[in-house]
Design brief:
transferase (chains A, B); Rossmann fold; 16S rRNA (Cytosine(1402)-N(4))-methyltransferase (chains A, B); alpha/beta; homodimer; MnmM_MeTrfase (chains A, B); methyltransferase activity (chains A, B); seven-stranded mixed beta sheet; 7 strands
């Protein structure tokens, strides 16, 4: 059977993240991806995780401590649109677009800040690195964000970047889907 | 790196096809998929391959003989829209939509016959079976066919069927993409 969409996102990340990797969870939420990433990067790697809600940091910290992984992650109470890292220093970035499950559904990611964040992530990304975006678009704001993000990634220059859409087409109710961007090479200078 | 689209199609098929499987190559073309499928089904399995051009059968026969796989395949000089097998007897079906490479480019698969063929394939398919459609749509007729096929597969009932789109979004010139349909269960009768 085809994997669940969140499992597919994890498969893509697993294939790319080696022990010692530096990775970003741009949308910490309840912390499940931060924990997953902390398992992948090993003792010598690091996860940098962002969220604008204190509740997200608290849940994530709790999960990490329970699994004895708290040394592998740094949590930032900050929008992913503000994240800043050196160029070509990051192996992978994950975004879960939408709202924090079981919390205030009026606080969602927004098209403009999401695209600013993806642009930043592209600059941080090593050649061979990967950005995985899981697009939840069942809510009103989500449809606008989906279109904006699709349009942005479709315009990324090939072959410097390769953009994958992995989507289940026939379930009703706008099921989430994956957009993944790999950085294949530096831009060619003529 | 993300796989080439034809390699991804083969990965999907490989995961599903066990030795002894009965599978269909609906669009034989130059025979590369028939050979690939013959390798997967083993000595006890069978590949049924269709094409309306004698040239396709000749090339395919030649390739099979070269690899000593001719016992594993039956080649039909017949449209895939005419293929007929018992219900739930087939493990996998592959379609390459478009024209036969290096041949008469006016002979292409057509929206109407393609959809008729996919409908047939859905009836032959075992529960747990898979249809893989590689959509080449760089030619004029291809754009019409692409839209018709997309619309058809989006309407397939979930959870009886699950339909996957796997597509690279940013290369120019309408690169081919994969639509894959798995049959998950029989229809529920209330």
């Amino acid at each position: 059977m085809f994997p669940r969409i969140t499992d597919y996102a994890h498969q893509l990340l697993e294939q790319r993240i080696q022990p010692g990797a530096h990775v970003i969870d741009a949308t910490m939420g309840n912390g499940h991806d931060t924990v997953f990433l902390a398992q992948q990067v090993g003792e010598t790697g690091k996860v940098y995780s962002f969220d604008i809600q204190q509740q997200a940091l608290d849940s994530t910290r709790q999960l990490l401590v329970k699994r004895h992984l708290e040394q592998r992650a740094r949590l930032f109470l900050q929008s992913h649109a503000m994240m800043d890292f050196p160029a070509e220093s990051i192996d992978a970035v994950v975004f879960n677009l939408g709202y924090l499950p079981r919390s205030d559904k009026t606080i969602t990611t927004q098209a403009e800040t999401t695209i600013e964040s993806i642009k930043r992530a592209l600059r941080f990304l090593k050649v061979g690195g990967l950005i995985v975006v899981v697009v939840y678009w069942g809510h009103e704001q989500g449809k606008i964000e989906k279109q904006a993000v699709e349009q942005f990634v479709e315009g990324l220059p090939f072959p410097e970047f390769m953009v994958l859409r992995y989507q289940y087409m026939n379930p009703l109710n706008q099921p989430p889907f994956v957009l993944a961007i790999e950085r294949r090479r530096r831009p060619t200078v003529d």
